Amino acid sequence: MSLSSGICAQLYDFARTHNGKNISTTLNGVDVRIIQRHEDADHILRLNATNYRKNMAWFRLVFGPSRFSEDGHAWQIRRDLTQSYFNKFDREKTFQLARHYATQAVAALTEAGSTSDRIDDAILRTMTASVLVDNFFNIKLNTTGIDLSVLATFMEAGSDYSFVPQGKTTDLYRSRLQQLPELRRKVLHQLGYFRSADLPHSPLLQDLLAADQRNTDRVVLEHELMTFMAAGAETSAATMSWACYLLALYPDIQDQLRGLSQQFWHSPQPSWKSLSSVTPLARFISEALRLFPPTPIVARYAIEEDQLSDNPVQAGQNIMVSFIGIQHDKRLRDDPWLPNITDTRAQVASGDTMAFSIGPRVCGGKQFALLEMITFLSIFLTRARFELTSDEPPAYLWKSQMLRLGGQPVRVTEL
Ligand code: HEM
């Protein structure tokens, strides 16, 4: 297990043992305040966000500076470069792309299901990365020569540094850092494909390349693409993997959602506009994100002292906002450990709000991610059945997003 994988299980333990309370603890030798109260998360991430900088020294070191890791002016420049594309994407085009790649993925899952009793996360990763690259760059992923497993291995190796505060990284993990350059070189080389002269027209890619060539605040195309792929493809793939697990764990919910999906796909003109009104599908995705948030924490440090609902915060304090803790708060729902696709009371810490974070650093691709995942789900349910192959409780694998160690114990069979 990587240095950091154990922390996911610890976050679930904290949610059980200190439900609704913040905790001071030590992670990987680092003092951290774990935030489990949504009121304090709102204060840190939104209301007083200027006092809480991103704590991603490790991420910058491994992946290079990008929109994801930077703060202040360097972040603003990168955000302005890309966000309009993430806001204004063509919903119906994305719906068709998600439909197409989900159909391919579910065929691969059922084929694999004839010999395996575990979900192969690589199939889901190919699906989400294909939609992302096709949607924003008009490029078919399978023509790029990009090997997603290299990026995934790099993410896993780099993720060991997730819980290391500013300045301590090299002291604590110097020996491990030496393993990364070769993987990094391979990933950068593969992403160099996006510099080819004869690629289809993509305004987003043109803007990124122009910023790279002008050397605007050290924007490097490959760094932005690397985090774009990690933020935009790995997260949605992880969520779909947990969604398949939940479908298998709760066959009644699976049957109910399948009925709605079949009805939708048999309607005269299936479109995103009509699918978006099938509320239980959206609620299910929200519940998957609530129970198993792919980004279970976000890391910050306090610039100046401050006051939270329970305790003061010192300047320089490491803070981790635990979406696992917040989303399992008993004050907000009757039984936070079970999915509920009908109860809409607990919106404040639902998966479709908290799991994408809140405030100025909210996920840039939230609307895109929700659209594609609801579409994936509707296709999966009309094509396949999901059966649990083991009752063992989840063990976690941390790769900058939370996966299930060994893959989900789910067999996928054709309907
Ligand atoms: C299930 C899917 C997803 C989840 C749960 C998710 C979650 C998150 C979270 C929690 C953050 C904030 C991280 C932090 O503050 O440290 C974030 C940031 C970000 N996400 Fe997502 N994400 C998802 C999908 C996507 C997709 C599909 C895209 C791109 C199309 C995307 C693009 C971004 C970007 C660009 C940021 C950086 C925002 C900024 O700081 O300006 N994400 N995401």
Automatic annotation (TrEMBL):
CDD domains: cytochrome_P450. InterPro entries: Cyt_P450, Cyt_P450_E_grp-I, Cyt_P450_sf, Cytochrome_P450_Monoox. It comes from the Bacteria. Pfam families: p450. Keywords: Heme, Iron, Metal-binding, Monooxygenase, Oxidoreductase. Belongs to the cytochrome P450 family. This is Cytochrome P450. It comes from Pseudochrobactrum kiredjianiae.
